[in-house]
Design a protein that fits this description.
With 214 residues, the chain is mainly β. The protein has no helices and 14 strands. Strands 1, 2, 3, 4, 5, 6, 7, 8, 9, 10, 11, 12, 13 and 14 form a 14-stranded mixed beta sheet that branches.
Amino acid sequence: MSGRGAPTLDLPLRRRPGPRGATRVRLRALPGARAAPETSVALQADAAGLTLRFACRARVLTARMVNDGDPLYLEDVVEVFLWPGGDPAVYLEYEVSPLGRDLCLLCCQQGGRRSAWRPWGVAAAAKPSCQVTVRGGAQHHGAAVRGWDAELRIPFAALAGIAPTPVPGTRWRANFYRIDHASGGPRHLAWSPPPHPDFHHLDSFATIVFTEQP
């Protein structure tokens, strides 16, 4: 299953995490949507997991929810979807708000049906985590800002029951998203935009190819 025109990205597997050598992509507005604020993602992979740094230009924060596990997708949010492949399609969804709250879900699709559930009893080494910084304003709902940045860390152990740790040559499907409400209604952005605002549209997922560190 692959979407026509979905990008393919080579991502080196570094020996250890580091501040340099990130691979960058930009998010785009969905087809027919209004112009969306500039958003980019810097990716790095190492032996233990993925690090993704979202840089989001913004004017106002829409973020009332203050608990991890809240339905963050109803407000400003960035999201990562990782699908190692297979049928049924079992994939990880990880969302982060401008307040640093997160929502982690394991999702499954088969035969046109979809389910999602929150992981329980996850060891610290397998739990996704995040750090958020707000630029040019306060970190609260309604604040006027210049933007916000979110660093997401997703250990490969979070997907240990779904797929082995990637090695050079491993191919995963993935997509990255953002929802922004500064202009009233939601504006949707994606790395590989689906034809309509359904972030679970698997045909639109791009492909990450893990490669050897140069």
